[in-house]
Design a protein that fits this description.
By secondary structure, the chain is an alpha+beta fold. The protein has helices at about 20-85, 160-175, and strands at about 10, 20, 95-100, 120-130, 130-135, 140-145, 150. It has a domain at about 90-175: SH3 type barrels (Roll), CATH 2.30.30.40.
């Protein structure tokens, strides 16, 4: 004799009757799908926040760069205006330090000045990050790299200006080492 066992059926949205086992499997799959969706939302939110943070950092860096450029341009403009207002004689020492160009330097940007080896630079001020501002022998005021000059608190002139500046820097170097 054959026995038949009837399983309880559950109706679904499809109106197809399912067994209890099939319904349990379906619920399990639906829960797994919801879990995957939730995990993806979390990952997407983390990625969005990371991208947002990176964009903010880039915006801050660009803002700093723009402020630096404006500061250099303002400094150059103020220096040029000061030279015009005061009719600076570049053969005299003005406020700030002086320097002697150790090497030729050609400016890369409009707010910089050209340097000629042995040239005296007046009104030298440190503007940070290895850059100085000063007035060259042509009367132009602008920025230049600090590693191209020897800064002092007096002007060294004459044919041996570069040698004197190098000698002074060697004396300073020896003093620092000892």
């Amino acid at each position: 004799m054959v026995q038949f066992k009837f399983l309880k059926t559950v109706s679904t949205n499809n109106s197809v009757p399912l067994t209890v086992v099939q319904a349990g499997e379906l619920k399990k799959k639906q829960q797994e799908e919801r879990d995957r969706e939730m995990e993806q939302k979390i990952v997407n939110e983390k990625e969005r926040k990371l991208l947002e943070k990176e964009q903010q950092e880039q915006d801050r860096a660009e803002s700093r760069r723009q402020r630096e450029i404006l500061s250099r341009e303002r400094m150059q403009g103020e220096g040029l205006q000061q030279a015009k207002d005061d009719k600076i004689d570049i053969n005299t020492v003005v406020d700030g330090f002086s320097a002697v160009a150790l090497y030729d330097y050609q400016k890369d940007e409009d707010n910089e000045i050209d340097l000629v080896e042995g040239e005296n630079i007046l009104n030298v001020t440190d503007v940070g990050e290895g850059w100085y501002s000063g007035t060259n022998s042509s009367g132009l005021t602008g920025l230049f790299p600090g590693n191209y000059v020897q800064v002092s608190d007096s002007v060294t002139t004459g044919p041996n200006a570069v040698e004197k500046a190098v000698e002074d820097s060697m004396i300073c170097a020896v003093a620092i080492v000892n």
